[in-house]
Design brief:
- By secondary structure, the chain is mainly alpha-helical.
- Helices cover 70% and strands 0% of the residues.
- It is elongated, with a radius of gyration of 19 Å.
Length: 212
C-alpha cells in the first residue's frame, strides 16, 4: 500500500489578546458574510488604526488564516452535533461527521465567495500543510478515528494520523475541485470515498458484526 505522508505540524501562534480575539471575530464575520477582507475597512469599522490592527493580528493573510480557523472550529462543532443527534447506535463517529462537514463546507456562501474572488490566497490558507486550518482539521479527524478505535474496535491499516490526513486531502480535492482542477465540486463522491477509506479497512471480525 502506498504510504501517506503526514503534514508538518502547524507553527504555533502566540495567544491573542482580548482585543485581538475581538478583531479576529469581526474578520470572521466579514468572511462569513462574503465581504472581501479589507484591512483599512475593517480597522475603520473597529474604530482603530490600520497600524493597530496589523500589530494585534498580523497582516491580511495571517488575519484571514485566523478568521478561517475560527469559522472552521464552528463548522467542526456543528458537524459533530448534527451527526451525534442522528447517529444510530453502533455507527462510527468519523464517516457521519465527515458527511456533515462536507455538506456544510460546500454550502458556505462566504467561503465560496472567497474561493471565487481570491482562489490562490484562499487555497493557500485552507490547504497549507503548515497552516492552522488544514492541520486543525486533520487533528480533529484523527481524534475522531481514535474514538472509533476505542469505542468500536476500528483497526485501520495505516496509523490514524496518516489516515486522517488522507481523508482531509481527499475531501479538499473534491470540494474545491472547481478551483484546483477546473472540475465541478462533487460532495457525494467525496462522502463515498471517505466512508470507504474508513469502513472498508475495518477488521473482518468488526465488519461482520455490522449490519446495513
Amino acid at each position: 500500500m502506498t504510504s501517506v505522508t503526514k503534514p508538518v505540524p502547524a507553527r504555533r501562534a502566540p495567544n491573542l489578546t482580548a482585543a485581538g480575539a475581538r478583531y479576529v471575530h469581526r474578520a470572521a464575520r466579514w468572511v462569513s458574510d462574503g465581504k472581501r477582507l479589507d484591512m483599512q475597512g475593517l480597522a475603520d469599522e473597529l474604530g482603530i488604526s490600520r497600524a493597530t490592527l496589523f500589530r494585534r493580528v498580523g497582516g491580511r493573510e495571517e488575519l484571514l488564516s485566523k478568521a478561517l480557523w475560527l469559522l472552521t472550529e464552528r463548522t467542526l462543532a456543528a458537524a459533530t452535533e448534527r451527526w451525534e443527534s442522528e447517529r444510530p447506535e453502533g455507527a462510527l463517529h468519523t464517516p457521519g461527521t465527515g458527511r456533515h462537514l462536507n455538506a456544510i463546507v460546500s454550502r458556505t456562501t462566504g467561503l465560496r465567495r472567497l474561493l471565487d474572488d481570491e482562489p490562490a490566497l484562499a487555497l493557500r490558507v485552507l490547504t497549507d500543510p503548515r497552516g492552522r486550518v488544514q492541520t486543525g482539521i486533520v487533528a480533529f479527524v484523527e481524534a475522531s478515528l481514535r474514538r472509533d478505535m476505542a469505542e468500536f474496535g476500528l483497526v485501520p491499516l495505516i496509523e490514524p494520523g496518516a489516515l486522517a490526513y488522507a481523508l482531509v486531502r481527499l475531501g479538499e480535492s473534491f470540494i474545491y475541485a472547481d478551483v484546483l482542477a477546473a472540475r465541478q465540486p462533487d460532495v457525494a463522491t467525496a462522502d463515498r470515498l471517505q466512508q470507504a477509506l474508513v469502513e472498508g479497512i475495518q477488521t473482518v471480525g468488526y465488519g461482520s458484526e455490522r449490519t446495513g
